[in-house]
Amino acid sequence: MEVFLPIAQVPINVLEILFLSAIVGVLSGLFGVGGGFLMTPFLIFLGVPPTYAVANEANNILATSVSGSTTHYLKNTLDYKMGFMIVIGGSIGTLLGIYTFSYFKGIGKIDTLIALAYMYILAIIGSLMLVQGLGEIDKARKKIQIKKKLHVHYWIHGLPFRMRFQKSKLYESAFTPIIIGLMVGFIAAIMGIGGAFILVPAMIYIIGMPTKLIPGTSLFVTIFVSVIVTFLHAFNYGSIDLILVFLLVIGSIIGVQIGQKLGEKIESAGLKTLLAILLLAVGIAIAYDTFFVEHVEKEFIRVENKDLNSLSSLIKKFSEDMPIIYGLFSIFFAVGLGIAAAFIRRFFSDLRKKHFNKTV
Amino acid sequence: MSFSNLKILSKLSYLKTNILKAGIFLGLTAYWSVILVGTFITFS
Which of A115, A342, A127, A315 lies closest to A223, judged by CA? Predict the structure, then answer.
């Protein structure tokens, strides 16, 4: 079942997009990561141009972050103060990232930049996860237990402007979350990801936040970073395609629910190793596509408005005539879907608990 | 006799683990070499 994307100007298979975004959603739910660093390369492999893949995946991440963050808000497992400090850095980092994106787009090297960024990020994360996952399996086999230090202090903990973070029970420099947010925002803007895979380890090992507050706070930060990335991409390049966003969000939200349920039942060290192998495989595929495949200049077939159906024509006209309002609409569309998903999930969870209590 | 069999088995298991670790190390080295060489060629 093919659909022509009016903004990206490419045809896509609806079932392929739904299936892939659901699979990535399952992995996100299992590992607590955004999945953007898998979904964007998958979109590129399916023929969506990299600049559109980055922008639309950022919008998808906005929806899933809102959904996850709403759930954590309802459970009261969010440190807003820490989150806002990271967002300050994230906003600056995102602006720098968009500026870098614009520069490389201007010199015609943006596709290469995105491909290289993915290759290196996937290679680094995949290698670290593989080594860590295999190490955990080896230690579990030998039944070795290693005592870890409670706190390790780096130079970043000596920075000025200390402040109290009551919810996390921390007293540290405001620069720490700001610098981390800056890095996350920069990478998010270029790669169209949430940045959780940098943010979560930084929150654990550098900031030292309690584990139960990390997923909610990380998702909270991702909302703001994704909003800025989505808006700037929509306004500067008109690259948000609501049809693609809708398909990605539906697939991801369903997948995340399944992934979270699976995560409660499956042992993590082996899965971490498998995910690492998957990341390395995707990195190799991007490397092969970038360095070894001869790229034939595709004839850019511009589809006229009269060839599009009414919904596609409306979206195209909306995006071209009112880019700011279209950008804001994309954001509210993703936020609305995310909140709806969180409340639907809570409704079914309460229904299941009531049914379970009745049978007991 | 059974004691030397146990020693041989544990040495085999140790060898298997080391071969596996060497294989993973070589695989990662090859992977990184492809990426770094490819980047260098692209930008030269």
Answer: A342
